[in-house]
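Q: Can someone sanity-check these two? First one:
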Amino acid sequence: AKDEITLLTPAYAARRRTPPTLITAELSGFDKPIHVNTEQAGKVNRVSEGEEDRPINKGTAILVGSGAGAAWLNAHLKPDDYVKLNFLLSPNPLPERPDKNLMKARAQELFDRGSSDTWSNVENAVGGGPWLVKDGKQYVDGIAESVNQESFTMARHPRTAVGVTKEGDLLLVTIDGRQSFSKGTTLPETADIMIRLGAVNAINLDGGGSTAMVVKDLYVNSPSDGTPRPVADALLVLQSSSIPSKYAETRKFNRLTVTAGEEISLPEVWHQMGLGATLPDWWGTENGTSFVDQAGMFFGFHAGTATVIGTGTIIGTLPILVKPGLADRIVPTVKKVELPDTYSMEVLVTDKYKNPVPNVGLSVRVKGAPTESYSLTTDVAGKASLIFTWPLDLNLPIEISSPGIVTVQVKRPIP
């Protein structure tokens, strides 16, 4: 965030990913895990501009400053200085943020306030909001959390939520969205689902393209971007100790090919391979590019190769190539170029699942001007481009057509 200082450790990532516009101070001596209400000291190794590809080595931590925070690091830290850091959580909201020059006073206020016993015992935490369910009833406080009601609270998106039942069981829930088979949910709809699952308290977590669930190293949902998105944080449930694998054998099957939208019964595939007596007890994909439910039905919506894995007494690995479906939609983009009556156009052709479709023939013409017509073919990325003449005295749209697809008309861009 602007005008702040953030601490990065090797638990954050292997590399810093800090742009040159930020200032970083590398500290050594951070060999212990960070816990709430603890204090650690580190020695400054170097202060420099941000370096996106520099690693965060074991035993080090990185202070990253932006704006006023960057100026503070530059002014107060130099190599061989020692820095003492306190890690505190406060259960109460802070007062209105003071002037940037009073940041030190704001930090001191938080330090003086201290933490309640509840917060001092926190071992792991993840940010979330708004509320979804409180005391067993729908409680969506989007307005209090200052989120946009129209585009966020009441719009359907992929969602991630966490809740607790009256018995104390933890519910971890993902809802796919922005896809043909699942449009997602509004926050009130998400709250209703959590109540139906037994939650007495629940909150919303980071959703949209970040919604993903991995169980036993396998993706068990369908991320809306077509592939999993890099995320800043996650809620993890880990084994308390190393448990020896029960799997005795691994089988790799030959690749299958399907068209986007097709379904495959994986138990039938296992039967055909002579493994009907050892069907998996868990299904998922290795790369999150398609969806497999726990009945073993594979749904291929995103073009590319999905690696399906079924785990049980035998681990079966099955690559499935999903090819784009029939061309369904033409998406043009037109721009004026620095020549009289001349424009550039890029056309994207997709199937009904928004996969780019290659080798689609297109006809482009300026309506009412028979001589201004062109033929295009989409490339491997489903795109075709053109620079064409659009006489100013012909204030008519251009038409882009292809057999089997609805013809698209484009008006001249306003200068």
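And here is the second, same format, sequence then tokens:
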Amino acid sequence: MILFFVLLLLGGAASGGLRLAGRCLKALSDNSGMAIAGLVAFIVATGMMTMPARAAALSTACTELNADWGGAGRTLDTSTLLVGTFHNVPEDYSGFSVGEKISWTVSGQVTSNISGLSYINYYAGDYYNVEYYDSSYGPGPYATAGSYTFDGTISDFSLDIGINYQGGLDVASVSMVATCSPAAPASTDVTLSALSLSSGTLSPSFAASTVSYTASVPNTTTSITVTPTVTDANATVTVNNVPVTSGTASGSISLSVGTNTITTVVTAEDGSTTKTYTVVVTRAAPASTDATLSALSLSSGILSPSFAASTV
């Protein structure tokens, strides 16, 4: 029975028939629930069966735009239009999510413009803050493309194409295809691409995957700065808990004689993933000014008075 279930489950996974396999699992679990549960866990863990990843949810506006402008998009052609009129197909959408992206391509042609008044055009934007538009009187083909990613500045967007058809012998057409894609997941990259000191040399040499370093400086070096550079431009970084702009030096860090631990923490774009790079900087002790002898003797004879370091 177990073998039958395994074959059915694997076959179902390969062919998309997971519902059938799931019903078999429910039926068999009454008699051998623990065995089946363990078997399924083994199958998933070893990669014999994988569950589909959940796609990012689109806003209603994004979904509606794809339905209206995806696929073949929208087209206007003078062969189906009434002469002497401006024709367009405006669509307005509201409620896009931050990170969603609209991409569009526009193509058209004014084959003839005998009247000199006919033209094709397009518009993309919110009519206030973000606007993309153009027109062509021809003659000849026209093509353009563009995109906009919602950053929180606006949440409404409109698309439109039009033909100003003013001459019965004028011939023109215009098309637009547009798609709306979901926001990309926030990056979890917490690596540095570079890390340097204003004095001393890192040991070992810097590598993004190496998080612990040492460096030595002379006693005359009383402070140091650290310059971290993040790999992902959207990551943030601190040095000894003080924010630093990527690629620029930190504030001056005082060094005591002996070891000094400096921590550089990178926080990923997702706001929760972090990585700590540690540099232990050793500042040398000051040079000695002791010029005394600890002993003085002769090969023959006796010193008088007896030797003392302070007696010269």
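A (reply): Looked at the second one. Helices lie at 2-15, 18-45, 60-69. The two ends are 103 Å apart (CA to CA).
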